[in-house]
């Protein structure tokens, strides 16, 4: 039976910012964090009205990886200037960037009465029971020190311009904030007051714009030359396209950890892999400890086929794409053939006998470097087969 729905304006008197704070505290999944910065999800609520020297943070969240999200709720019927709201949330982030884990933990114990502390609060979440305390503390300290914080202004009728937000962010260039505006659209189902349907929408977000282009010339057998062009006059949209896959905080953290685990030569090589992969139609899916290369369904279904994953330890895993191909009606033996053909160019590598679309071990990035050109030819052939499966059958 169909039921009518009616859009409800949040600025009417039956709603308040306190109601909005409580709603997202109890339902963190309402916030489209994974669409903005995947490393900050899933969000675990640390509480409301967190006390700082800059004021009280409306809502504070943390991810199992130690990334903080600050939320400032705003219903625009209030006379407070919009610019003031943007400035306020950035002040909170700047204040937190002066803290350590111990100070954050102490504030949470005192402000929201988390008697057993932040670590215990995180470990109570499903799937987080085995998180290592020292790793989480180190990540939180690092993210606080560098200002790697997601800032969300959540409310109704938000139409702030990106230019005005960037002007505020540019006052603290040493910190790596990401600022996003999220509008919550509320609908009433039928004639009753409850239940309500709440739909989040990312209105806009700022991105860190790359202001230099690093050109890698040469090859990895004879050596590389790095050329850097800076102070470019390129339009922002072009820069965003060039830096696609490298503008997120998750990407920054990945390369820092990769550099710690390998060396600068390997890190630069991975950047070349990303650039080359994007040139042949692959997209990059970032996590805080790895990134995946994916191939969008050429038919436009929106499904992305997993090709391979690079982890922070400098190892590569082949993406297990069999089920994705089957869902698209593409023969899975295309995946099996690529697995076998690509494995054949490495020493001691073979398809996994229990899972034909994957290798029997991880491959070190250092193993890929001297074989890169051969591997990329096989990868391009694989993508061509996915895009033209009928030709393969013929």
Give the SSE map.
Elements: E1 5-8, H1 17-26, H2 33-36, E2 44-52, E3 55-62, E4 68-74, H3 82-96, H4 101-111, H5 117-123, H6 133-146, E5 149-155, H7 162-169, E6 178-189, E7 196-205, E8 212-219, E9 223-230, H8 236-242, H9 249-261, H10 264-279, E10 283-286, E11 290-296, E12 304-311, E13 315-318, H11 322-327, H12 333-343, E14 351-352, E15 355-359, E16 363-364, H13 365-368, H14 372-387, H15 389-393
Parallel strand pairs: 4-5, 5-6
Antiparallel strand pairs: 1-6, 2-3, 3-4, 6-7, 8-9, 10-11, 11-12, 12-13, 13-16, 14-15
Helix pairs in contact: 3-7, 12-14
Helix % is: 25-40%
By DSSP, the count of extended strands is 16
Largest pleated sheet: 7 strands, mixed
* Distance separating the two termini: 49 Å
How many whole angstroms does the radius of gyration measure?
24 Å
> What's the overall geometry?
globular
| Mean pLDDT figure | 79
| Low-confidence sequence ranges | 207-217, 219-247
């Amino acid at each position: 039976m169909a039921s009518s729905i009616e859009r409800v304006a949040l600025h009417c008197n039956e709603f308040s910012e306190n109601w909005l704070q409580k709603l997202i505290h109890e339902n963190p999944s309402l916030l489209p964090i994974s669409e903005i910065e995947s490393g900050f999800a899933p969000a675990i609520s640390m509480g409301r009205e967190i006390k700082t020297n800059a004021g009280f943070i409306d809502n504070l969240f943390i991810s199992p990886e130690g990334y903080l999200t600050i939320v400032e709720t705003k219903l625009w019927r209030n006379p407070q200037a919009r610019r003031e709201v943007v400035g306020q949330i950035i002040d909170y982030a700047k204040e937190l960037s002066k803290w350590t884990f111990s100070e954050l933990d102490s504030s949470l114990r005192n402000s929201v009465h988390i008697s057993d502390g932040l670590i215990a609060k995180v470990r109570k979440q499903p799937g987080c029971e085995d998180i290592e305390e020292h790793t989480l503390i180190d990540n939180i300290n690092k993210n606080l020190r560098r200002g790697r914080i997601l800032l969300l202004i959540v409310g109704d009728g938000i139409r702030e311009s990106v230019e005005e937000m960037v002007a505020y962010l540019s006052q603290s260039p040493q910190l790596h904030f990401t600022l996003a505006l999220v509008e919550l659209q509320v609908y009433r189902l039928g004639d009753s007051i409850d239940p309500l349907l709440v739909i989040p929408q990312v209105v806009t977000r700022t991105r860190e714009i790359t202001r230099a282009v690093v050109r890698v010339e040469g090859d990895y057998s004879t050596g590389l030359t790095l050329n850097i062009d800076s102070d470019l006059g390129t339009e922002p949209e072009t820069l965003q396209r060039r830096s696609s896959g490298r503008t997120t905080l998750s990407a920054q953290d990945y390369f820092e950890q990769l550099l710690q685990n390998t060396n600068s030569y390997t890190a630069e090589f991975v950047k070349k892999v990303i650039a080359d992969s994007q040139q042949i139609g692959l997209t990059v899916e970032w996590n805080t400890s790895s990134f995946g290369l994916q191939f969008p369904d050429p038919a436009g279904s929106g499904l992305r086929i997993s090709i391979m994953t690079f982890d922070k330890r400098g190892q590569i895993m082949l993406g297990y794409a069999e089920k994705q191909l089957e869902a698209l009606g593409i023969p899975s033996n295309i995946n099996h053939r690529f697995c076998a053909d690509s494995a054949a160019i490495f020493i001691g590598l073979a398809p996994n006998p229990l899972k034909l679309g994957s290798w029997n071990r991880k491959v070190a990035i250092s193993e890929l470097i001297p074989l890169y050109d051969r591997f990329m030819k096989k990868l391009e052939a694989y993508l061509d087969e996915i895009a033209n499966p009928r030709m393969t059958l013929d």
